[in-house]
Amino acid sequence: MKVTLRTEPLRVVRAAHQVPGVMYGRSIDSISIQADLNDVLSALKEYGRTETFKVRLDDKYHHVYFKAVQSNILKPHEIIHFDLHRVTEKELVTGMVPIEMVGQEVFYNQHIFAELLKHEILATYSPVGGHAKLVVDVSKMELHDEKKLSDLNLEGLEIKEDLNQTIVIIKEAKAHEEETEEKAPVMAETENEESLSNE
């Protein structure tokens, strides 16, 4: 993704379909930047909030990740500001690492399914040169099988949670039959006796 230094007021930047932002890190001062809206959206979709990627600023590349993203309250898909945190190979970051489940398509049209019990894990890792996510493959699992956090590939991650916790389990898909309740016979209310006719 290409970013440039921001020198114009915010209204001018946004009118040009650019998104204002800031880039900072331990070894650099905060820099006001801007980027094309489509580039920001594409980077968010591809890398998310934990995976690092490269940005080019003044013909120099930096390893960054999205530290914060601000959206329009009325239009959540419209990005109005972003923060990039620059990192180096020697730095470590601590954050929530997403867990991605793959291979669940093998259970289609079967009576079993894979349930992902945890969607993210707290860990410390180097964000440079690696994918900050965990992948759990369920394609070879059978009914009642389960995988714990310790069963996953944790290379490059220092997990800050219990390694024995279950991440995914294979369950039986039980059909929810609608119970038909027998309707109790409705007793017709007896009509009030006709009032005595006036003598």
General description of the model:
With 199 residues, the protein is mainly beta. It folds into 2 domains: 4-87, Ribosomal Protein L25, Chain P; 93-172, Ribosomal protein L25, C-terminal domain (RNA Polymerase Alpha Subunit, Chain A, domain 2), CATH 2.170.120. The chain has 2 helices and 13 strands. It has helices spanning 10-15, 37-47, and strands at residues 4-5, 18-25, 28-36, 53-57, 60-71, 79-87, 93-102, 112-116, 120-125, 134-137, 146-148, 157-159, 166-172. The strands form 3 sheets. The chain has a 6-stranded mixed β-sheet. The chain is elongated and about 60 Å long.
Strand content is: 35-45%
Query: First CA to last CA: what distance?
Result: 101 Å
Query: What is the ordering of alpha helices and beta strands?
Result: EHEEHEEEEEEEEEE
Helix-strand makeup class: mainly beta
CATH C-level of the largest domain: Mainly Beta
Question: Secondary structure elements and their pairing?
Answer:
Elements: E1 4-5, H1 10-15, E2 18-25, E3 28-36, H2 37-47, E4 53-57, E5 60-71, E6 79-87, E7 93-102, E8 112-116, E9 120-125, E10 134-137, E11 146-148, E12 157-159, E13 166-172
Parallel strand pairs: 2-6, 7-10
Antiparallel strand pairs: 1-3, 2-3, 4-5, 5-6, 7-9, 8-13, 9-12, 11-13
Structure characteristics:
single chain; 199 residues; disordered C terminus; 2 domains; six-stranded mixed sheet; mainly beta; four-stranded mixed sheet
